[in-house]
């Protein structure tokens, strides 16, 4: 349950994103300690949540930045991350984004196609620079997660497929303004079955052998992010099991001498610290259900509409016996629904409703559809 006094909440307009910075700090400290046991480098995936106070905590805990757009690179640098700690991935980097990242001398471009390598080489050459790159390889590992957040299958748009690697190496031999420093993988998000990561390790080991057989030294192995969180029991498991996660890579990833391992975590670091708080506008009797109509909708949190994802919903105000509600937003879309047949204490106009585990892919995906105002954020 959200750790906030209802009288304090009354002072604020809703919808409102509330962030528990204490929980965030505990989460980051745990991740840092567990990754530190094996000297692993963690880059925070800014796309999960790029609010300045969140980025400040990431920086304070020594994480680097994983960016997927030029503006994310810019946000990382403006919020104090060193350019040597910034990596930049994405299937569709524009010339302007590449030029900006080159000018800033970022640590590494994670490159996803031959065409991108050619463009990057040309732009780097014009600037008289050498771009450090890692090849993002599509390992064809099933992440067993929602299809929209599965990224490591051959049918997905991401990365370079295994059968293209030979020709990529031939191309790289001709590209003089590019330096290959590593390989990169990111197979999907909200992965809760750790055997998926074990399968990834097996594939990475195979790719390592492939490169070693061609006498190519890779200094950096980047295994991406994707560790899931418990949307069903946010209170029981507020901090993901980082010990098991990093321990698994330690057990199954075979490294060559001197190699550095990098991770790119987003959701696992920030999801649980964020809660979307809303007021109930109306209770409407339906044919077979009651609708609790909130002042928050898919414009504030699109995950249920986009991925049919579950978020725990609680009434912070009422102590009445429970009833069942379809909890919906005010947007003119039937997909604007946070949960169907949700058991809640009898709910009335003005009650506060908390939607948990909204710290990742919540505020960053907000839109102003229906010309809605952007929700404010409160940091506890
Ligand atoms: C989205 C993304 C991540 C972070 O994924 P999470 O599931 O939030 O950990 C990491 N790397 C890349 C390349 C990404 O696109």
Tell me briefly what this model is.
The chain has helices spanning 6-10, 21-36, 52-60, 70-78, 95-103, 114-126, 165-174, 195-213, 242-252, 267-270, 303-307, and strands at 16-19, 41-45, 64-67, 86-88, 108-111, 131-138, 160-161, 178-184, 220-222, 260-265, 274-285, 290-294, 313-315, 322-328, 337-345, 352-355, 376-379. With 380 residues, the chain is α/β, with parallel strands linked by helices.
Can you walk me through this structure?
The chain is an alpha/beta fold. It has two domains: 6-16 and 272-379, Beta Barrel (Lyase, Ornithine Decarboxylase, Chain A, domain 1), CATH 2.40.37.10; 21-271, TIM Barrel (Alpha-Beta Barrel). Helix content is 29%, strand content 24%. The protein has helices spanning 6-10, 21-36, 52-60, 70-78, 95-103, 114-126, 165-174, 195-213, 242-252, 267-270, 303-307; strands spanning 16-19, 41-45, 64-67, 86-88, 108-111, 131-138, 160-161, 178-184, 220-222, 260-265, 274-285, 290-294, 313-315, 322-328, 337-345, 352-355, 376-379. The strands form two sheets. Strands 1, 11, 12, 13, 14, 15, 16 and 17 form an eight-stranded mixed β-sheet that branches. The chain has an eight-stranded parallel barrel with strand order 2-3-4-5-6-8-9-10. Helix 5 packs across helix 6. The relative contact order is 0.16. The mean pLDDT is 96. The protein binds pyridoxal-5'-phosphate. Pyridoxal-5'-phosphate (PLP) binds at residues 45, 47-48, 66, 68, 89, 186, 189, 224-227, 264-268. Pyridoxal-5'-phosphate is lined by residues 45, 47-48, 66, 68, 89, 186, 189, 224-227, 264-268.
């Amino acid at each position: 349950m959200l750790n906030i006094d209802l009288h304090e909440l009354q002072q604020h307009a809703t919808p409102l994103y509330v962030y528990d910075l204490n929980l965030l700090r505990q989460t980051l400290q745990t991740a840092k300690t567990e990754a530190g046991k094996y000297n692993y480098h963690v880059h925070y995936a800014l796309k999960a949540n790029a609010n300045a106070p969140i980025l400040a905590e990431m920086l304070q805990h020594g994480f680097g930045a994983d960016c997927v757009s030029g503006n994310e690179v810019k946000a990382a640098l403006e919020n104090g991350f060193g350019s040597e700690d910034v990596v930049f991935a994405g299937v569709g980097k524009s010339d302007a984004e590449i030029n900006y990242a080159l000018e800033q001398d970022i640590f590494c471009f994670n490159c996803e196609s031959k065409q991108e390598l050619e463009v990057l080489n040309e732009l780097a050459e014009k600037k008289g620079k050498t771009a450090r790159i890692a090849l993002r390889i599509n390992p064809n590992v099933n992440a067993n997660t929602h299809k929209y957040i599965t990224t490591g299958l051959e049918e997905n748009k991401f990365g370079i497929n295994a059968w293209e690697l030979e020709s990529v190496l031939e191309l790289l031999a001709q590209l003089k303004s590019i330096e290959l420093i590593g390989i990169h993988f990111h197979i999907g998000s909200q992965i809760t079955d750790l055997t998926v990561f074990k399968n990834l390790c097996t594939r990475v080991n195979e790719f390592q052998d492939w490169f070693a057989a061609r006498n190519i030294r890779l200094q950096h192995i980047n295994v991406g992010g994707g560790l899931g969180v418990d949307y069903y029991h946010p209170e029981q498991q507020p901090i993901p099991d980082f010990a098991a996660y990093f321990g698994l890579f330690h057990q199954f990833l075979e490294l060559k001498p001197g190699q550095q391992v990098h991770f790119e975590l987003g959701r696992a670091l920030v999801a649980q610290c964020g809660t979307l708080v809303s007021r109930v506008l109306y209770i409407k009797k339906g044919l077979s259900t009651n609708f609790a109509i909130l002042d928050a909708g898919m414009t504030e949190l699109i995950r249920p509409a986009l991925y049919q994802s579950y978020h725990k919903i609680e009434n912070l105000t009422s102590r009445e016996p429970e009833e069942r509600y379809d909890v919906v937003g005010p947007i003119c879309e039937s997909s604007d629904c946070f949960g169907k047949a949700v058991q809640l204490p009898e709910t009335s106009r003005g009650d506060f409703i908390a939607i948990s585990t909204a710290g990742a892919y919540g505020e960053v995906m907000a839109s102003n559809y229906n010309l809605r105002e952007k929700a404010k954020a409160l940091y506890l």
